Amino acid sequence: MQSTFSFTNTTNRTTSVPVTEIDIDDYAMREDEPESCTITNTTTNMDQPELVTYQCGTLKRIPTKNTNLYPPTVEGGVQYGIRIDELLRVQTDDGDTLYDLPIVATLTFKHPSNAAITSGHVETVLSRLLGCLYKDESTTRINDMMRLAIRPKNS
To answer: Are residues 85 and 130 in the same domain?
Structure first.
């Protein structure tokens, strides 16, 4: 029996978003646990580290806001993601440091442990998620969201 796969939303607008890849050779292991590892950027200032954490684990249920008309027989699944911790240093014009502002970003995927879900499917969802951050090709919604104005609008 052959299966077909489809997502419900097929409206697509494509845009080219620059991605800053990390050079893994610039990082060293900071923490290594069974379900997570944290690496630190060895090229940053000692007092202004950049940390990247990779995490994975299992779930008893997949939390979703969707109503699933055809649920799988197994409810358990996996979750995995990445977290980056940055410090934005604020300095005066003459170089005095005023303070460091932490900025933390996370990206987590959760889905059933099912061989039908491939990395290609997850990459499609990632593309859709990143697309939700954009009003158009060059304008993100981040400025609005920083002000807690979360209702999407094009202008």
So the answer is: no
